[in-house]
Design a protein that fits this description.
The complex is a heterodimer of chains A (369) and B (570). By secondary structure, chain A is an all-alpha fold. In chain A, 72% of the residues lie in helices and 0% in strands. The chains are: A mainly alpha (369), B mainly beta (570). The interface between A and B is medium-sized, with 39 and 28 residues.
Chain lengths: 369, 570
């Protein structure tokens, strides 16, 4: 981490928090803020089911982990809190995660989103900037930063920020709409019309843009077009594809919730939906045994063997006694024509479970019996 | 909760206010001071909360400043609540009213000696009983105007339940003529406006209805998924408004349907009327909670068409419907047309719609500096007014949350909805700057403010504000501006001798024109001083004034002296 990054983050985090405690035995001492954990008993059963285990896991991990591992534990708990609207607790967790993992862009980003929600705009802007210094490619941070700059009346900076986003990602409907807003504000209605239209083409469901487009048509004197656009007005804002917030949102439910839904989707042969649901489950619990197997199977069914291999390798590492790991890895090797590797993996599977019929049959085929 | 503990909580709340005020750094000179207690304006609103989180109790009520006894000074009418919930009694109240408090609306007479201007010692006397006003419904709002052209200002009182029209008999007493006038509405009315929609010299009545609601089917929502909290209105619960045509002699006809205004429903909380499109008749703007606002354009034939969407005042600049509580219309940028400002919920921003002169608007909240500073506040009553008489219209908004504020709740605050109010100074180029922090200790008061009625209560040539607080004491924010700036006060009357609501006043100061509308509506659930007060800055020379009445009559009044009130007739 550069000195600049470190000083920026430290300044932000110290401003944002308060008292500190230093538990890190390895490396230079890191100051942590106390987390105002909510009383789990206050929540409804479904929320308790999500927060309770997350909190218990954190307590267990925080007792034995330090450094980066402790940072991950704080971040993980922060995601659960953020997903359940516990803003103060989530913010404290993210501050600690950022302190322990100063090169990780995720935590200043989540903190920025929280600060923006609570109206602490100056902090939010600085935290988006910190995020982008750590990962200049994370375009949702630049997009949100640019949109916030518009809200704060800093049009020139916003234009530069959003233009840099669309220069690298012309598919970013939200950034295009933001540039449209800036064009409209300075009276360049033709450009605003073009940008809004482009944004709507990319995200046709973003019905809010139809209102803005309608007023631009009005300004251009095209009243029929204005009325038509206004009639299609809705409340859906242009979507920002934001993997980090998607992962955070997934923490609203335990992994088992998504796996149940994914199994139902598999039953309906909806592989795309099941893959999405399983990705949520694994975001919440990356080493969920059933989730890893199911995701691997879905990917195999979709002929995405390389991705499937990754799932089963993770499964085999985390659960060496799970027969599906070597079995499916063997199957993937078979598909790729690597007979020797396939035989070895099927042998491994049968070593775990000699009665595993599918492995026996696969091995027979491989040996030409 | 037992009564003694309730009293302790009440005492604690009361104790918070002066403490907060004391913590404010001393301003160079307080622009406003709270003189309610000092002047005898002793009133504490009671919302009847018992911990059940009834939707009604969170909304709060307004008040009116109007001259009921025609003695030339503004009197004050304040709306009261009562216990909420079937079978609930005062013993169930979380914050019971003081012993002996009467739970009905109150009328306070301004006892300034007749003709004394400015009033040297402002005093109010509760004359409710003598006035014979008995308004003990669950009160929400009030509109004030002379409905029968007898020279006396009448009152329309809105409730969660039946409304009341109180006719001013001119002898200090009022009579309830709701039934014979035909203007009742038993729904949940909050704001209303008296507006002469057909320029016939009789004030018609537009009544804004909020939502369909039944406390017996009460919902309780959760804050941060764990604390009981108030719910907002259900989607689709918004009600339709009502329009009554004044037939004269105290009679009205309900023309809601034929006029077209029931073709859209909303959730009305604020109403402003003016000739927004400059075509010579009065239009009606309705601020709706959480859904699209309405902009009823007068077609000139007793019908209206909602053109809010194309006019650009339906939703904010992004296309999002906002909470829209308080609203006011005024020419803030001095270009001669009427602009709109309205207050919204926390995590929205207040909205400024700038008129292009033809009734088409642009949301310029960000560019004019009114967006970011309002993000953390839930605004209610508001108005354009020139607090420093520099000639440019400033803004005041009263605030108070409708959902609990987590930080207050976690700090064990017994009434965690309170916020501070805000004052915005017009910089003269159309942009605004928040000056709350430097405007006096009264701005450190953190309360659950709802209504705001604006008027010159002490007739000293600047605008004072009566702020009503939900479940709290009324505040009389007396403008203590030092008088360095000059002004002119205008009472515009029509041929019948009543305040000419809707008339347009143009005050020519050097080469500029300051355009104002004679109005008592706007804000939230409140009625304002209909007199027009125009700041002249450093200029003390006589000014020319032009008045355009609603019926099209126009007259110029040359060389009117500054620093005094004038009464102008057609």
């Amino acid at each position: 981490m550069t000195l600049r990054r470190a000083s920026l983050l430290t300044a932000l985090l110290l401003t944002a928090c308060g008292e500190t405690t230093p538990p890190s035995p390895a490396g230079p001492p890191v100051e942590l803020v106390s987390v105002p954990h909510p009383d789990v008993a206050d929540f409804k059963a479904d929320v308790q089911a999500a927060i309770g285990p997350a909190r218990a896991a954190f307590e267990q991990q925080s007792a034995v982990k330090d450094g980066a591992a402790l940072g991950e534990a704080f971040g993980k708990l922060g995601l659960v809190y953020q997903a359940h609207e516990q803003q103060e607790a989530a913010a404290a967790c993210f501050i600690n995660a950022a302190s322990l993992l100063p090169d990780d862009h995720r935590w200043p980003y989540h903190l920025a989103v929280l600060r923006e929600e609570t109206g602490e705009f100056t902090d939010a802007l600085a935290l988006y900037e910190a995020t982008l210094q750590l990962d200049p490619t994370y375009s949702p941070a630049a997009t949100r930063q640019g949109l916030l700059q518009i809200q704060l009346g800093d049009a020139d900076t916003a234009r530069a920020t959003l233009q840099s986003v669309v220069d690298t990602d012309r598919q970013n409907a939200a950034a295009l709409a933001g540039l449209g807003d800036l064009a409209r504000d300075r009276g360049d209605h033709e450009r605003a019309r073009a940008l809004y239209t482009e944004s709507l083409t990319l995200d046709p469901a973003a019905s809010q843009i139809r209102y803005r487009l309608g007023l631009v048509y009005r300004a251009l004197g095209q009243i029929d077009e204005a009325r038509a656009a206004l009639a299609g007005r809705g409340e859906r804002i242009p979507r920002i594809r934001d993997p980090l917030l998607t992962i955070m949102q997934a923490h609203k439910h335990p992994a088992s919730h998504y796996i149940d839904q994914a199994n139902a989707a598999i039953g309906q042969n909806d592989l795309r939906r099941s893959a999405q649901l399983l990705s949520y489950a694994l975001a919440v619990e990356p080493e969920h045994e059933e989730g890893l197997v199911a995701m691997g199977e879905v990917l195999l069914a979709a002929r995405q063997d390389d991705a499937a291999r990754g799932q089963f390798e993770t499964l085999s590492q985390a659960y060496p006694e799970n027969v599906y790991g070597p079995y499916y890895l063997g199957l993937i090797a078979m598909r790729s024509g690597d007979r020797d590797k396939a035989i070895r993996l099927m042998d491994e599977a049968l070593a775990i479970d000699p009665e595993f019929d599918r492995a026996n049959k696969a091995l027979s085929r491989l040996r030409g019996n | 909760m037992n009564r003694s503990r309730s009293k302790a909580l009440t005492a604690r709340i009361s104790a918070l206010a002066p403490l907060a005020a004391a913590l404010l750094p001393a301003a160079a000179a307080d622009l406003f001071v709270d003189d309610a207690a000092k002047t005898g304006l002793g009133f504490t609103h009671f919302n009847g909360m018992s911990g059940e989180h009834y939707f009604t109790e969170m909304m709060g009520a307004g008040g009116a400043v109007f001259d009921y006894d025609n003695d030339g000074d503004l009197d004050v009418y304040l709306i009261q609540g009562r216990m909420q919930g079937q079978g609930k009694t005062l013993a169930d109240a979380l914050f019971p009213p003081a012993d002996g408090a009467v739970l009905s609306d109150r009328l306070f007479r301004n006892d300034c000696p007749a003709g004394e201007r400015p009033c040297t010692e402002l005093r109010f006397t509760d004359v409710t009983d003598a006035s014979r006003i008995v308004a003990d419904g669950y009160g929400m709002g009030v509109a004030a105007a002379d409905i029968d052209n007898d020279g006396n200002v009448d009152l329309y009182v809105m409730n969660f339940g039946d409304n009341q029209l109180w006719r001013n008999r001119g002898d200090g007493t009022f009579e309830d003529i709701t039934e014979q006038a035909g203007v009742n509405d038993p729904r949940w009315s909050v704001s209303a406006s008296f507006v002469d929609i057909n320029a016939d010299g009789l004030l018609d009545l537009y009544v804004g209805n909020y939502v369909k609601h039944d406390n017996a089917k009460q919902r309780v929502c959760k804050l941060a998924q764990r604390f009981d909290d108030y719910c907002g209105p259900l989607r689709g619960a918004g009600d339709t408004d009502r329009l009554f045509l004044n037939l004269g002699k105290g009679q009205f006809r309900d023309i809601s349907k034929s006029s077209g205004i029931t073709s859209a429903w909303g959730g009305a909380l604020g109403i402003s009327t003016a000739d927004f499109d400059g075509d010579g008749d009065l239009d009606i703007y309705v601020a709706n909670d959480g859904v699209a606002n309405q902009f009823w354009i007068n077609q000139g034939d007793l019908t209206f068409v909602d053109d809010a969407l194309l006019a650009g005042v339906s939703v904010n600049k992004d296309g999002m419907a906002e909470a829209s509580m308080g609203v006011d219309a005024g020419d803030f940028d001095g270009d001669g047309d009427i602009d709109l400002f309205m207050t919204h919920l926390r995590q929205e921003t207040n909205t400024l719609y700038v008129n292009d002169g033809q009734g088409w608007f642009e949301d310029r909240s960000i560019a004019m500096g009114l967006a970011a500073d309002s993000y953390n506040f839930t605004g209610f009553g508001t108005a354009w007014f020139d607090y420093d008489n520099d000639g440019a219209l400033d803004l005041f908004s009263v605030n108070g949350a409708v959902r609990k504020i987590e930080a207050l709740l976690l700090a064990d605050d017994p009434y965690p909805l309170h916020q501070t109010n805000q004052l915005f100074h017009n910089l003269g180029d159309g942009r605004f700057e928040e000056v709350t922090a430097t405007s006096g200790a009264v701005f450190a008061l953190s309360e659950v403010s709802r209504g705001a009625a604006f008027g010159d209560l002490d007739n000293d040539g600047d605008t004072d504000i009566v702020v009503t607080n939900n479940n709290g004491p009324v505040r009389l924010m007396r403008n203590t501006h030092d008088g360095a700036a000059h002004w002119i006060g205008l009472r515009i009357l029509d041929g019948n001798g009543r305040d000419a609501l809707g008339a347009t006043v143009t005050v020519r100061v050097d080469k500029t024109a300051r355009v104002r509308t004679v109005r008592s509506d706007g804000s939230y659930a409140s009625a304002n001083d209909p007199r027009v007060l125009v700041g002249l800055g450093q200029r003390d020379a006589p000014v020319d004034v032009e008045v355009l009445w609603v019926d099209g009559k126009r007259r110029t009044f040359p060389d009117l002296t500054a620093d005094r009130y004038h009464e102008l007739t057609p």
